[in-house]
Specification:
The protein is about 45% helix and about 15% strand. The protein has three helices and three strands. Helix 1 runs antiparallel to helix 2. It is globular, with a radius of gyration of 13 Å.
Length: about 90
């Protein structure tokens, strides 16, 4: 694992911890920083990181706190408090 990937993982941990402590601005800062590191190093963000962040407002999503999670026909629908929707499939 190279330095940029390790940095992204560490920023993910910090964003999760900040969101848990209700420091939403700090969590948003960590998410933005991780996205910037990934862009500059041409890396894809890890799947868990993509699924728990909002693409529109960069918030770290916590189901039941600032995100609504619903199961639909073959996919999971996540709605952030800002109104952005994300969908991804789940198994068969």
């Amino acid at each position: 694992m190279d330095v940029a990937a390790e940095r992204i993982e560490r920023l993910h941990e910090l964003a999760r911890a900040a969101a848990t402590d209700d420091e939403h601005d700090r969590a948003r800062y960590y998410v933005r920083l991780a996205r910037r590191v990934a862009e500059r190093n041409r890396l894809a963000l890890p799947r868990e990181f993509r699924r728990f962040t909002c693409d529109r407002c960069d918030a770290y999503l916590r189901p039941g706190r600032n995100a609504r999670v619903r199961l639909r026909d073959g996919h999971v629908a996540i709605t952030c408090d800002c109104g952005a929707h994300t969908r991804y499939p789940y198994g068969e």
